Automatic annotation (TrEMBL):
Signal peptide: none annotated. Pfam families: F-box, LRR_At1g61320_AtMIF1. InterPro entries: At1g61320/At1g61330-like (IPR053772), F-box-like_dom_sf (IPR036047), F-box_dom (IPR001810), LRR_At1g61320_AtMIF1 (IPR055357), LRR_dom_sf (IPR032675). Residues 7-47 form the F-box domain. This is F-box/FBD/LRR-repeat protein.
Amino acid sequence: MDQISGLPEAILHDILARLSDRDSARTSVLSKAWRETWFKFPILSICSTQFFRSQDVTVDNYIKLDKVIDYVGRKSLKLRVLGIVIKEFKLMMDYVDHKYMAHRVDLWMKMAIESGGEVLHLQLRIPGGYEWRLSPDRCYELPLSVIESKSLTKLVLMGGIRVEQAFLTHSIKLYSLRIIKLYKLLFAHEGIIEHLISHCPLIEDLTVIDCAVYNPPINGIPPVFAFSPVKSLFLHGLHKLKKAYVQGMQEVYIDAPNLESFRNFIHPYASFKLNLDSCTNLRWLCLWNLRSIDLGDKWFLELFSKSPFLESLELNNCSMSQRINISSAQLKVLKLSYCSNLEEVNIDARNLLSFAYEGNHPPGLSFQKSSNQLEVNGFSIVDFRDLCSLRKFVQNIKPQRILASVSLFICPSVLIKPEQGALQVSSIPPTIKRLELEFSPKNEAHYFPFMNYLLSSCCPNSISLSFRSYVHSKAFIEFLYEILMGRKEGKCHCSSSNTKCWWHALKIVKVICTFKIDENADFETMLDALPTCYADENIGFILELYSTD
């Protein structure tokens, strides 16, 4: 017997708990001892994709579906006979036949709840996508026993699940519940969500995403159900709530004095009202698609006044004023992504550590007060139709000392054929900390216009190529190396002026990489060792100019 198999059962269960569901299940075939350990493991997790694909199950062939049923039955019975509490019950499966499966899922749910389990995760996918909306009866009806559990600390309900009106009047005993996540559920009444959450006194983490209400069917054959999104959420007296994520609501009111993190996503162009006035302890706020209100100076002034401890603010795809002023002594992280209309941002935040902007038309940035640890990150795409946009963004960052902390990330984009001729510049562009390429052209004809565009917009102290989400070609990296070493010529600014492009005055070009390689290896060896697939690796160039003094 190996040494691990001889460890105490509690330690073996802890090892299994740290593995993925698939890997922990695989340990059951290692030996008889591991099989026994697996059957006594108090976490019962079932994912139907490990047994079958929904298209494989037909009315005349339930063999693969029966394998799931048999497996759950045998393991749950084993735990029950041994008197072992099922601490976690996770069921993630294609709900292929509601008539065949409903009573079995009911039985499993009852078994998990009555055993005193702490975690219940039910995720059902109805084959055919949203076709189930033609009839809520195809969804699994959540049993009332779920809200009678005094031991549950975490409840996750996702997908094809229907919650009936009886939940409005039934006694709720979720006294220990701390985490609740409701994702794309169908409710018979809009008030069920509020009623359920308000009876969970210890709730700390709340997620409600794209839930809907169904109305009684209109007369007809077949009956047609009317659906509408749950439009509002009004929550009062949630003194333990620390984290909330709400998506798809048009009006949200939360009374939670200890709320620290709030994320809200509304669907584009929908009207929206948000009231977090009582959430005076808010630390992190992330908002998406706010278009119904004017995000101007008044909004920001009220935000920081009502949330004096706010440290992180993210605004994504929001409609803004042309000019905004942000003043906060506590703000440490600020991120603006694809915010329309925005032309100027003035920031007075002496403790700000990170600012990021992502978008095609970056605004002018002015930092009135800033920490000496501030990092400024700009995420941009290459647009040959507007050659001055990137350079303009860098030049419009004030004061100039901030440039030493600026990093530009070049994101994937569609490169149209560049116009003939060079990007004309009259001086060396601003010097920044770093230029990271998360994308590079595949077409060799675009290599020089691409780099000419970038190196005429900024003068980075280093250039790195990331392989996290894109595999750069060996040919492009070799081209970049040769142009920086002065071995490659092209139609740059030098071809039309006596002024040399700044990269022709490089004193030192040092190549570095994060992947394993001999420290004395030459550039060709590095090229041969390049990653051939996505990897958390980089290859970079450290640049140093000759002194202009």
